[in-house]
Write a structure and sequence with these properties.
binds zinc ion, alpha/beta, five-stranded parallel beta sheet, 33% helix, 471 residues
Length: 471
């Protein structure tokens, strides 16, 4: 019997918060067993030559939507497959009751086991869930969800008090299937989340979608009155950065009053990032940006395939977000992956469903646009897509780095492999791709989940082995 299951030889290990080290890495029984400069190939069952490659910790795609528009099992099978292409080995998916998803409400004590059962056996990556308490009864479940179900993060959507997801209806109660989904409800969630954190001694946090509903109402009316153009620019004008800034102000004020750790999701604009940075002092506040807000702008895109909340912004906004990534103002980058088919987009702005996929580009975009183009060090890339979200969401030290004893979740990247993004390349169920046509340099050539190769050279290997990760 061999000493190691898998040996990755001759590569450069990328260690978050440390740097890059020329060393070999060996796994055994799903965890990292040894790191050294001359581990012997004869002692391993399988050897992977990583000469000229960067060996990263598997990414933690911290913002994801399994099962929002399609059955959970289908999304789990087809979308986590795409995650392997982008080098992610864990996805943390948002789930809520109300319209879309399971299209009903009820206690999470009943619904969460149903969700886990639907995903189990289909996911190619490990997975966890952030849950959104939509009604008062679900707020009462926060403590038991933390203690008994391994859920360490929750969510509140600032704009659902006035709109549905597409912003084509103001019947928010029908959409959320809840009672009062307002700042009072948010305050109650924050109290419950802060208390659960104190009681458990861990970071239990609330993630926030920051767009302000009353201002959206005004700006949407103005866009519609001014001829109602069916463009992404119009969508951005209808939910402008000011709505993000005001929502961030409301959310962080309540976070300060309740002592609740918060994660400000998908900051899309220079204004939003500046507001988040200004609010940091005295709070446990983390910031997220998405691949699409870093890479896409409404000046270049045509069609509505990239309708998303918050909207795609200007090219100047994308550069401001990159500056935040480089400076450390941004804590992590995620995909906000939501498989949304072309038939649900159409040519009409308001009914088009928001969201699209991007998980298959997580490491490729950070390596290509961050490392090659903007000088981001490899270990900073690893912090942004793996270590920082792992620490924020209770996955550390099991996930998020390449240290002996950690899960052997590993992504081997060829930093010089250049490919044009196509829908097919990403192995997602989504039939269009707003990133298509971009040249990207630096792609995973092997993605390893708990010691076993799950993706290699453009194709998945074996069968789905992803497991629910309690946090
Ligand atoms: Zn999202």
């Amino acid at each position: 019997m061999s000493r190691y299951d898998l040996l990755i030889k001759n590569g450069t290990l990328v260690l978050p918060y440390v740097g890059e080290v020329r060393a070999d890495l060996a796994t055994r029984d799903g965890t990292i067993a040894a790191i050294g400069t001359d581990l012997l190939a004869s002692e391993a069952e399988e050897v992977l030559d990583a000469a000229g490659r960067l060996v990263f910790p598997g990414a933690v795609d911290a913002h994801y939507h399994l099962g929002i528009y399609r059955p959970l099992a289908v999304d789990a099978a087809e979308e986590t497959r795409s995650s392997l292409v982008g080098g992610a080995t864990t996805v943390l998916s948002y789930f809520r009751t109300g319209q879309h998803y399971l299209n009903r409400t009820g206690p999470y004590a009943e619904i969460l086991p149903e969700v886990l059962a639907a995903v189990s056996g289909h996911a190619w990556t490990d997975f966890g869930f952030h849950l959104a308490p939509m009604d008062t009864r679900q707020v009462g479940e926060v403590a038991s969800l933390v203690d008994e179900h391994g859920i360490a993060s929750f969510k509140y959507y600032m704009f659902y008090k006035g709109f549905n997801l597409s912003a084509d209806s103001r019947d928010a109660k029908a959409f959320t299937m809840s009672d009062e989904y307002d700042l009072g409800h948010l305050y109650q969630i924050m109290e419950a989340v802060a208390a659960a954190g104190r009681d458990s001694g861990r970071r239990v946090s609330l993630s926030l979608h920051c767009e302000q509903a009353e201002l959206m109402r005004l700006f949407i009316d103005r866009v519609r009155a001014a001829g109602d153009p069916q463009t992404l620019k119009a969508y951005s004008d209808a939910r402008p950065p000011l709505t993000e800034r005001v929502a961030i102000g409301e959310a962080t004020t309540l976070a300060g009053a309740t002592g609740c750790p918060v994660n400000l999701l998908h900051l899309s604009s220079a204004e939003a990032l500046a507001a988040a940075s200004a609010a940091r002092s005295g709070l446990d506040l983390r910031t997220e940006v998405t691949l699409h807000h870093l890479c896409l702008n409404y000046e270049e895109l045509s069609g509505l395939g990239a309708k998303v909340n918050p909207p795609i912004r200007s090219a100047a906004d994308t550069e401001a977000l990159w500056a935040g990534v480089l400076s450390g103002a941004v804590d992590w980058v995620a995909s906000d992956h939501a498989c949304c088919l072309e038939e649900h987009k159409g040519d009409e702005l308001w009914p088009a469903l928001p969201g699209f996929g991007g998980t298959g580009l997580l490491y490729p975009v950070l390596v290509s646009e961050g490392m090659h183009r903007r000088g981001l060090a490899p270990h900073r890339v690893a912090e942004l897509v793996s270590a920082n979200p792992a620490r924020a969401y209770g996955l550390w030290p099991r996930k998020g780095s390449l240290l002996v004893g950690h899960d052997a979740d590993i992504t081997v990247v060829d930093p010089d492999l250049e490919q044009e993004v196509t829908t097919e390349l990403l192995l997602s169920g989504q039939d269009h791709c707003p990133f298509a046509g971009r040249k990207v340099r630096g792609w995973p050539v092997a993605t390893i989940l708990r010691g076993r190769v799950a993706y290699r050279d453009g194709a998945v290997v074996g069968s789905p082995r992803g497991e629910f990760v309690k946090r």
